[in-house]
């Protein structure tokens, strides 16, 4: 393969933000919420130091040698993740979660949707959200499961 042939690569960057939330569904009774979410349904909420790894995918530009300029990715992540989520009460400060349960799965979808609006079309590959070292969600933009 010659050096000028297209080469695909994935580029990842991570950020960490702190936020609190309460796992609670308006579709469930208080008793059902407690049964489903346990201590995470605490009326006063609880907090996490989330780590988010964003991966973009594309051809390595033959001139710059990059899939994407890291400075641009950093700026987009600041706008899509840090500004709306860092040091926030997800349920009270982020309008998206007024009607959507603030699970880590839904946090990953929120981040994906925000990044999709900012990044070049088709470059976003994966959003990985660590709620804790043991609880991790990966979202790749799939909307439904095909059966």
From TrEMBL:
InterPro entries with a match to the protein in the record: 6-PTP_synth/QueD, 6-PTP_synth/QueD_sf, PTPS_Cys_AS, PTPS_His_AS
GO CC terms of this entry: mitochondrion
Cofactor: Zn(2+)
The keyword Mitochondrion appears for this protein: no
GO terms, biological process: tetrahydrobiopterin biosynthetic process
EC number(s) from the headed UniProt entry: 4.2.3.12
Residues the record lists as binding Zn(2+): 21, 46, 48
Record keywords: Lyase, Metal-binding, Tetrahydrobiopterin biosynthesis, Zinc
Short name of any one Pfam family annotated for the protein: PTPS
Pathway: Cofactor biosynthesis; tetrahydrobiopterin biosynthesis; tetrahydrobiopterin from 7,8-dihydroneopterin triphosphate: step 1/3
EC class (word): lyase
Residues forming the catalytic site: 40, 87, 131
Molecular function via GO: 6-pyruvoyltetrahydropterin synthase activity; metal ion binding
Highest taxon above the source species: Eukaryota
Record text on cofactor binding: Binds 1 zinc ion per subunit.
Family named by the database record: Belongs to the PTPS family.
Function: Involved in the biosynthesis of tetrahydrobiopterin, an essential cofactor of aromatic amino acid hydroxylases. Catalyzes the transformation of 7,8-dihydroneopterin triphosphate into 6-pyruvoyl tetrahydropterin.
Name by which UniProt lists this protein: 6-pyruvoyl tetrahydrobiopterin synthase
Species: Sclerurus mexicanus
Recorded name of the encoding gene: Pts
């Amino acid at each position: 393969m010659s050096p000028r042939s297209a080469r695909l690569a994935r580029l990842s960057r991570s950020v960490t933000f702190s936020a609190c939330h309460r796992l609670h569904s308006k579709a469930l009774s208080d008793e059902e919420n407690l049964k489903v979410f346990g201590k995470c349904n605490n009326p006063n909420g609880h907090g996490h130091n989330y780590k988010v790894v964003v991966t973009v995918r594309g051809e390595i530009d033959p001139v710059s040698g990059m899939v994407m300029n890291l400075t641009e990715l950093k700026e987009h992540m600041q706008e899509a993740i840090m500004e709306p989520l860092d040091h926030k009460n997800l349920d009270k400060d982020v309008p998206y979660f007024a009607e959507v349960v603030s699970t880590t799965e839904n946090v990953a979808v929120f981040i994906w949707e925000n990044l999709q609006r900012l990044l070049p079309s088709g470059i976003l590959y994966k959003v990985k959200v660590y709620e804790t070292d043991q609880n991790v969600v990966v979202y790749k933009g799939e909307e439904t499961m095909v059966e």
